[in-house]
Amino acid sequence: MSRRLVAPTAPAQDPGELRSGNLPVVPDEVVRVLSVLPSASMVVSADGLVLRASARSQALGLVNRSLVTVPDIARLIDKVAGDGEAREQEMRVRRPPLGRELLELRVRVAPLGTGAILVLIDDLAEERRVDAVRRDFVANVSHELKTPVGALSLLAEAVLASSDDADQVRHFAERMQIEAARLSHLVQDVIDLSRLQGDDPHTHAEIVDVDDLVDRSIDEVRTVAAASNVDFIVGDSSHASIYGDRGQLQTAIRNLLANAVAYSPGGTRVAVEARVTGSMVEILVKDQGIGIPSNDLDRIFERFYRVDPARSRVTGGTGLGLSIVKHVCQNHGGECTAWSEMGVGSTFTLRLPLYGADPDSGPVAQHISLEQLTMPEAEVLA
Question: Which long-range contacts (CB under 8 A, 24 or more apart) does 138-146 make?
Fold first, then answer.
């Protein structure tokens, strides 16, 4: 006969009714360790009473009024209680109490020296979601690399076939340079994104002047903007600072500016402004570009997602720029949001924590509206 008690569908007994004899003592060291573990955890006695349970195990519905609610877990505990051997098992069970959701769990059960039994439970759903994202990422990178690598291979063959025609060789060589640059940008973006996902920005953190950050980011894309006949309008100084990784922050702003230039027609303007709002610094990048369809706005920060793949091939976009922006913001405790209207333009807003200043003091940056982008610059900044 099994000694393990499982909560029945009827109301469980009061835990006080289960106590018979002396219960095992749970050492304070064990309690402290369990309180910081990410796993759901519980400590049970040999007669089935849950002595300690983490908030996570209760949130998953694995414990109810000092009883184990999942029969499969209870049976595993019973085996360990019987022979004293530690066990580990992956299982798929219905989530109590209604059973409408399936849980994928890794359950580890081991006896403690005090006569109690330790149960550690990991929810595998998040782990497997991360694995799926990783597999998709590798597949996407492989697919994206095929395009420039394949183009370089074909162009090399064309150069060999046209070795007697200097004009053709020059033409194909220029195309090879473009594809090589695209490949280089893709590899660099993959490296940047990989670093962002595993890097703590506070390892290389410093106090960063927001106005200087914006100016440096604009300087990085000014040549490309000039070639596209796109001008920049910069709002008043914000006199604000951010604490973080200067390189990451500059990369995020540069990516937004490069996107704005790439998707703006010649003769238009891109406005950049920084302002303090409460305890946050907002950095806005506004363009008069082609706009983003509303059904795509929720996905533009996904890796390799492109609203217009054909245009991305023309502009040389890798599909990783906005994903990098999102991760930079998250690493610094902020966020990036987007607003857009087809045929009007788009506005991207970085919101990052303000460093070391009273949010109610200091000058407020001038607000530049999309309508002002069509006005002469002297009138905008007057």
Answer: 140/303, 140/304, 141/190, 144/186, 144/304, 144/318, 144/319, 145/183, 145/186
Same domain (yes/no): 355, 210: yes
In which domain, by residue range, is 241 found?
Answer: 201-380
Q: Could you tell me what percentage of the chain is helix, strand and coil, using 3-state DSSP and rounding each to the nearest 5?
A: 45, 20, 35
In this structure, what CATH number is given to the domain that contains residue 112?
3.30.450.20
Between CA 88 and CA 75 the distance in angstroms is 12
Pinpoint the alpha helices (H) of 50-104. Answer: 55-59, 71-83
Per-residue pLDDT of 102-161, as tens digits, reads 888 999 999 987 788 999 998 887 777 767 666 766 666 666 666 667 777 888 888 888
Q: Give me the count of residues in the chain.
A: 382
Q: Which of 16, 105, 122 is nearest to 67 (CA)?
A: 16
Q: Which residues is 41 bridged to in the sheet? A: 120
Query: Which H or E run includes 259?
Result: helix 246-262
CATH of the domain at 296: 3.30.565.10
CA distance linking residue 94 with residue 70, whole number of Å = 8
Dist CA 74 CA 119 (whole Å): 10
- Which of 77, 104, 126 corresponds to the end of one domain? 126
Report pLDDT digits (tens) over 163-206: 888 888 888 888 887 777 777 766 776 666 666 665 555 667 88
User: Is residue 74 domain-shared with residue 223, that is, in the same domain?
Assistant: no
Instruction: Tell me the average pLDDT across 67-96.
Output: 90
Q: How crowded is the C-beta side of 90, counted as CA atoms within 13 Å?
A: 6
Furthest C-alpha separation in the chain:
98
Q: What is d(CA 176, CA 244) in angstroms, rounded to the nearest whole number? A: 38
d(CA 37, CA 108): 14
Quick one: average pLDDT of 358-370?
47
Examine the fold and report which residue of 126, 160, 188 is the final residue of a domain before the chain moves on.
126
User: Over the range 236-259, which residues count as b (16 or more CB within 10 Å of their CB) and which as e?
Assistant: bbbbbbbbbbbebbbbbbbbbbbb
Are 320 and 193 within 8 A, CB to CB? yes
